[in-house]
Write a structure and sequence with these properties.
The protein contains 3 helices and 3 strands, in the order αββαβα. The protein has about 100 residues and is mainly alpha-helical. Strands 2-1-3 form a 3-stranded antiparallel beta sheet, covered by helices on one side. Strand 1 and strand 2 form a beta hairpin.
Amino acid sequence: MQEVAKQARLLQASRVGYRGRDDLYEAFHPDGTREGGEPVPPIRGLSPETSRRTNLALGRGDGIRIQPSRMEEAGQMHTDYFAVWDRSRAYAAAVLALLRAHA
């Protein structure tokens, strides 16, 4: 029972950690290089974050990319995403062990 509770807490932490991946992206105008280009200018009168989201929603710009300043965070989220699968399997194994013990 304790193992099931432990694995459930770890799985919940993973779910909370897998938030906000959409916050990493921005609309931009590429300049022909792999990571070059300029972000779409902000919309006057909106906060920077609201403007970024609106630019994405309206399809402004010529492409979508991960914000260069957030590449490290994107890499960590990618790693964390696969850790969720490992934690979900550990939770399932703990539940199955508990069910077998009480059957």
